[in-house]
Amino acid sequence: MNKIEKVVYDLLKSSPAVKHVVRNAYQMVFDLLPTPANRSIASIEAKEGYFFGFHDCTPFSADMKRVLANHSELPIRMPLKGEGLEVGYFDFADGHLGKFHALDTSFAWNWHKGCRLQWADDNRIAFNTEHDGALQCCLLEVTTGEKRYLPNAIDTVSEDGRLATSFSYERLNVLMPGYGYPYCHDGAYLEQKAPAETGLFLIDMSTGERRLLLSLEQLSGESDSPLAALESHYVTHSEFSKDGRYISFMHRHIGQDYRKRTSRLMVYDLQSGEHFALPTTGMVSHYCWNNRNQIVCYCSVAEGDAHVLFDIPSGKYRPILLNKLNVDGHQSMVNDSIFVTDTYPDARRMATLWAVDMEHDVRTELAYLHSPKQFQTQDEHRHIACDLHPRMSPDGRFVCFDSVHTGHRALCVMPYLAEF
Questions:
Q1: 310 Rama sector, left if φ>0, alpha if ψ -120 to 50, beta otherwise
Q2: How much is the pLDDT for 23?
Q3: Which residues does residue 355 pair with via DSSP β-bridges, in sequence order?
Q4: What is the DSSP pairing of strand 232-240 with strand 246-254?
Q5: 3-state DSSP call for residue 215?
Q6: CA neighbours closer than 13 Å in the CB half-sphere of residue 264
Q7: Cα separation of 189 and 191, whole Å?
Q8: What is the pLDDT of residues 334-370, one digit of tens each?
Q9: Residue pair 340/351 in contact by the 8 Å Cβ criterion
Q10: Model confidence over 121-138: pLDDT tens digits?
């Protein structure tokens, strides 16, 4: 954002409805201008009709021979009950996507987070689906097609494949429309603002056993927000640290306007059983872990809204490129000191993919891509937008992202050029 846009944004961010109207009117002016040309530092390979979803899991296999993807020919609208999402993988060799291998179909998905398709280990994938009338997680052997179901949907699998996080996707769908699944009941306790029976769960991937780590009742009681006792609570966006010691997640609560929420970034220590909130001030958006038990997050801190590096062992933090990298994004680590992130479409409907060097406080543009207006989310119940959601390969050589710059939703892979 430029300085004027930032001032207007800060004035309106506490009034989502007004901000929505002003944003649309502002963009209508730029709709009269020619669309800027797409550009990127390297050639982009785009597979139309495919996408992956969120930025917190890598679609690349550990051996770099496969790239996971979802496939759908659905028009630009939200999926209905019974409309499946094909899951599978592309062969990946010499930096190029090859043949797509369809493996199964999910019946619990959305455009932003897909069906939470991810690698459970070197030869198994995990994804959510409706099975036997319930939301469950399917574990599927890629080479044999053998399937096993866990009795609950998952969010994220740990690096070693032993554990997964979980929460109520029914509750998430009501309180954060477009990110959960409306198909089945899963113990949402929607009549309660902060129920004791649901919250953040831990799942044993070998047995399917589910254990409640922190309830919404407990999280609500610990919040210092004056709104906590009045609003409805939920958890979302959970991740394991790379060494598996910590689980991070967002604790959120909302009132009548779903677009206006209070967020805390929480960390649960699996070794000690203790948990704590990071020093954010009401807004937390997206984040990721590096190998040093540090979190890169876009959030509000005492210094303002910024990308922030939190060091979990020491409890210290520092803003990254304060007032320069001043827009929300979805982060993925290249290595422990460099990450990629994106922006939402600007006034010209152009989204930017950045590489950010935290040690030298430098950002470098990797791509600048058009997002046609038909993919703009219309309201909180129709999340049809296609964010770039960049995801790095394990070897740091390729970035995978979703894009609509070709005019169609597409899974994209581009070489990451370290020498830029």
A1: beta
A2: 58
A3: 340, 364
A4: antiparallel
A5: strand
A6: 21
A7: 6
A8: 999 999 999 999 999 999 999 999 999 999 999 999 9
A9: no
A10: 999 999 999 999 999 999
